[in-house]
Amino acid sequence: MAKIVVDVMLKPEILDPQGNAVASALPRLGFTFATSVRQGKRFEIEVEGNPTPAQLAEVEKAAEVLLSNPVIENYVVRVEQ
Amino acid sequence: MRVGVITFPGTLDDRDAARAVNVGGAEAVALWHADADLKNVDAVILPGGFSYGDYLRCGAISRFAPVMNLVIEAAGKGMPVLGICNGFQVLCESHLLPGALTRNSDLHFLCRDQEIEITNTTTAWTSSYSAGEKIVIPLKNGEGSFQCDDETLAQLEGEGRVIARYVGENPNGSRNLIAGISNARGNVVGLMPHPEHAIDTLTGPSAQGLGFFTSILNAMVK
């Protein structure tokens, strides 16, 4: 069964207080690698068999209308086997 | 005049909003999110709360409730619509108002009495105030930071559509201290703090929120 994944991230210019909080917590635990952290959402959508181009187009539409808010967020749709 | 107050699953402030409508001199009419019926109301209030548990994004699911299709259609024809807190978020998700409300910049849920300045008194919901009038009403939200792109911000400022600003320190990171905005026509208003909790000094920090609910009467008399 294939899985369609939609990643939703705040646009780069939108302040991400949650990501900032994570970024400042990391060094407190000794993790000093990060210069920046952004936090987003991941949707995993299962369909029967391999997704058709028509299904992917529908998912794109759903990502635009419901899963993301285009005012503040970007999204990427991809298929995971 | 009849003012509808919508209850979504998770709405908190519908009772206070209805009471404020009645104290203001209009008749509050309860509307249910799943009904495709506005019950002949003359105006609509989307109250605060956590509709649909704030799942996905605040207001994102409510925007697709059956009653919202009618609200969006009626707003387009000029019906006064006021969204308070979560209602403001629903109006942004519905694209009746531009921009979006995001997590408070310090991540904290704020609950306090907040001074705001009324900066536009020509809308359907602010005409009872005088320009520059400062009022103190409760602010209580976790995602109240108003964000939009530079172009939208310039348009809101240029057209005088910022209807209220926070006074003093920025409580949540909102651009230009924006506490409330209107659409171009002035019939749709979104406000983050809660005027419906400030209509009686017995329970609120002031009675200065009542002006939003008396303004709507002026709008109808015109």
TrEMBL record, chain A:
The keyword Translocase does not apply. It holds the Pfam family PurS. InterPro entries: PurS (IPR003850), PurS-like_sf (IPR036604). One of its GO terms (biological process) is purine nucleotide biosynthetic process. The keyword Cell membrane does not apply. Keywords: ATP-binding, Cytoplasm, Ligase, Nucleotide-binding, Purine biosynthesis. GO terms for molecular function: ATP binding; ligase activity. This is Unannotated protein. It comes from freshwater metagenome.
TrEMBL record, chain B:
One of its GO terms (biological process) is 'de novo' IMP biosynthetic process. Coiled coil: none annotated. PROSITE patterns: GATASE_TYPE_1. CDD domains: GATase1_FGAR_AT. Keywords: ATP-binding, Cytoplasm, Glutamine amidotransferase, Hydrolase, Ligase, Nucleotide-binding, Purine biosynthesis. InterPro entries: Class_I_gatase-like, PRibForGlyAmidine_synth_PurQ. GO terms for molecular function: ATP binding; hydrolase activity; phosphoribosylformylglycinamidine synthase activity. NCBIfam families: FGAM_synth_I (TIGR01737), PRK03619.1 (NF002957). This is Unannotated protein. It comes from freshwater metagenome.
